[in-house]
Amino acid sequence: MDLEKFFDTVNQSKLIEVLSRTIKDGRVVSLIHKYLRAGVMTQGHYEETTTGVPQGGNLSPFLSNIMLNEMDKELEKREHRFVRYADDCMIFCRSQRAAERVLAGITKFIESKLFLHVNREKTVVAHITEVQFLGYGFYRSKDQFRPRLHNKSAEKMKAKIRLLTSRSNGWGNERRKLELKQFIIGWLNYFRLADMSKLLKKTDEWYRRRLRSLIWKQWKRIKTKHRNLMKLGIPEQKAYAYANTRKSYWRTACSPILCLSITNERLKQAGFTFFSDHYTQVHCVN
To answer: Other C-beta atoms within 10 Å of 285: how many?
Structure first.
């Protein structure tokens, strides 16, 4: 289940009512109300905020959880199993018919009691193996379900690697190594719970091929290629033949020309970070 434009559509009066049940000091409630009504600056122009909570504001995540805690309590009251992160929620049922009944009931509660809107396009009744939650997918392993990387998350990751290993971004190799390291470590720390060792090995093979292709492009001239291949241990005659190859950059990247010279170990020594290495560390910890 997904709530439509949640931060923009929170009913402030309902939120203040929920806060007032617990916070007995009216001054605190009044201060929060003023924060909600303070308005925002959009492209230099002041806009009133009569609904919603300021997205990116310090209090907004707390206030949104306070509001949606009402939905949590309703689900607990109905004895449903569920998990929620911010405005994304999954409710678990034993059958499709039961799930459709639960969806209709909780949608009515959300829209009539909390004055929020359920996003009909992103809210679905589906088997656990067909859904995406916070970028994760799920698969069955023996008698339990395990988290995996959702296909859309894998596509986004590869698109980011393409961007970071592009020759047209004007970066030097040191900046590229830093950007790749920051992205890979941050991405793996987020998805560390997923079972994806085989996927990451294949991803690393593709990623190393992109790096070799990039390096081959950077060498440009035949003389430079010849000299650098010799430095990397290729005999002179073979280096000369390799340097004069007419294969495309992408084909050369997986040929003996570069696999024997720019080895996996040399790429590591050069300072490039790879998915499988860091995944082994963070996944074993968990």
So the answer is: 7
Measuring CA to CA, which residue among 124, 134, 112, 117 is closest to residue 7? 117
Q: 229, 195, 200: which is closest to 212 by C-alpha?
A: 229
Which conformational region is residue 43 in: left (phi greater than 0), alpha (psi within -120 to 50 degrees), or beta?
Answer: left
Distance CA 6, CA 54 (A): 11
pLDDT surpassing 70 at residue 33:
yes
* CA-based nearest residue to 137, from 173, 90, 69: 90
Cα dihedral 60, 62, 63, 69 sign: positive
Dihedral, 17, 19, 20, 25 alpha carbons, nearest 10? -150
| Residue 135 · residue 188 · CB < 8 Å | no
CA distance 229 to 217: 14
Helices first, then strands: H and E counts in the chain = 14, 6
Residues 6 or more apart whose Cβ sits within 8 Å of residue 203: 154, 157, 158, 161, 275
pLDDT at 281: 78
Per-residue pLDDT tens over the stretch 238-275 = 889 888 988 888 999 988 888 889 999 999 999 999 99
Cβ contact 149:134 at 8 Å: no
> 């007032």: which residue's tokens?
20
